[in-house]
């Protein structure tokens, strides 16, 4: 459920903004539950044939009569013609959202889902596609339809990392999950019990291997970092039975809930420790950041951003223009790179390397992943030269686009093929630039600007123009591309166009930045602390054992989880002291940025503005006099906590079907939220010096007041025009170049801060070691976590 709201209520904190309005929690009715049940079951174990008899009957044929659809376009005709002649991407083959031939077919399938007149037509088409269409294409089109159909508000799919865990974990773990067998696990457990008892008994008396660990002869390798925690607990990389609870940051909301405990007692749960990628065969320093670049929340955020504002959805039909889709996409790229740069600084790395099509890519990358058809993902060696692919026609198209857009930004105008003149010296023209850089259908002159983005990613994967069957490559799908260090280099070149455009806009003057009568006197920031915690990710979709049905009803009796270390931070607060000479509606913004570069040299504000990440903004009505505003990191409207897992959602749903539970529509977090735990970069034990920037500014009302047209607790409001606090440019006031003689005004405040890092594994390698060696330490959450990281 909406964790931020629950925590605020529990802590007695008063929200500093009208954003969190009181709302009535909506409970799902029977019709809604039936629809939700269908969506949960249709994506269950996609690698296997569909086993639900009702859906098999339902999906016997695709509805092709035009009367079943609000629109029947050419993409739907092309898709069905391809199906009739056997030209669709076969099931089991790798699907790439950025492969041109795949995207064209996916668009047709999406239209069959999106334009279906009613739920009945939609359901039949989805059931048909589940049995006849490539699995990756099916999920891609279905996700888009669930997000964008107006009549589907509140309906959801499991998270993408639960539908396709293979895209988020290494091949070693995937193999172990796919070959998991309950009967074999039971036999191995009984067989090993006697041996293990002797081993741990000897260990306790100082005779086992653990004696080396406790006597100080065992060397704790810092290279393993926190994410190989199981070695310090004496555990192996195999399956363990779980009879207590599922690990996550909001664990206390569930393990003390009688309904949750009653619900989960009937499901057998296993977990296995899982590591991040480490490039042992092609060593480079970038592998130190694998805990961040391979984080499930980090990658899924980028995936859902590109589902919400998909490149082939036009801004008029889907109302994406209401959200300034081009500017928003480009600003997100900028913010993600700023966040990545701060994580690099925490490890002593410098600026993101420059990208060139004609120079070596120093950092190679081996994803160590395997597609569900058994084919491994392709890799790139260190010092690889992109031009050696030899597809010079495609490379020429890509580089010509970059030259063209840089030229028109410098010229300040663009004349379209039909003679229309576009002024690129207006601030709102950033929308055109964003559309072109994303290569979406709203880009002006589609002939020149639409496909460059797709072709660039195809070139990275060595895919030809009309190729259908391709090798798996992380750069061809949004949910996997951020794992590769080259992603950040390439997207840096995209962001440089954003800053090139901003270079030609006039700098903000003191008069524009000043808010007369309002002064920000002080901001008190609580301690900022990061740490690594443990989490369980639901990977049940990789099970391969026989599905259980009782009286025709599916019985979800087993679940698999991946237990992984991931970066998190202690909740923090900051308290504003703002003086105003009158009552006034304002917006308060907060940014986080570096103070020094990797050499300890202070970065000038003129240069550093590109590195600031906006972490909070909210509406507030100032009173005359002194205003004390307390803001908690749990209140950030754009962040989310851990989502409710696939297994739990299904059990809650079935309880609601039986009348034993009221299924709230906000039972899980909105799909579009950024992980709250990644707001802060990993700190240092002695404190990593950073700086925060705060600004209070007049409220500039958007066309639709924020959250006025949708319920933010379960909906993202895509296309509503009501997603944002105001209508100021994204990133204001750091969007334009800075004149330091004009920039500093009383309604701004800079604050030097330090981010500390607490080593949660220190008790396991220091002092006397871990006394319960060979068993998972459940006090990790109940003792240490409670003491240090919970209000």
TrEMBL record:
Domain Hemocyanin C-terminal, chain residue ranges per copy: 507-757
Location of the Hemocyanin N-terminal domain: 32-153
A Gene Ontology BP annotation from the UniProt entry: energy homeostasis
Sequence ranges assigned to domain Hemocyanin middle in this UniProt record: 160-498
Superkingdom classification of source: Eukaryota
Subcellular location: Secreted, Extracellular space
UniProt keyword terms in alphabetical order: Secreted, Signal, Storage protein
Keyword check for Secreted: yes
Pfam families xref list: Hemocyanin_C, Hemocyanin_M, Hemocyanin_N
Gene Ontology molecular function: nutrient reservoir activity
Any one cellular-component term (Gene Ontology): larval serum protein complex
InterPro entries on file: Di-copper_centre_dom_sf (IPR008922), Hemocyanin/hexamerin (IPR013788), Hemocyanin/hexamerin_mid_dom (IPR000896), Hemocyanin_C (IPR005203), Hemocyanin_C_sf (IPR037020), Hemocyanin_N (IPR005204), Hemocyanin_N_sf (IPR036697), Ig_E-set (IPR014756)
Signal peptide annotation: 1-16
Assembly description: Heterohexamer, composed of three subunits, alpha, beta and gamma.
Homology family: Belongs to the hemocyanin family.
Function: Larval storage protein (LSP) which may serve as a store of amino acids for synthesis of adult proteins.
Name listed for the protein in its UniProt record: Larval serum protein 1 beta chain
Native source organism of the sequence: Drosophila ananassae (Fruit fly)
The organism's taxonomic lineage, starting at the top: Eukaryota, Metazoa, Ecdysozoa, Arthropoda, Hexapoda
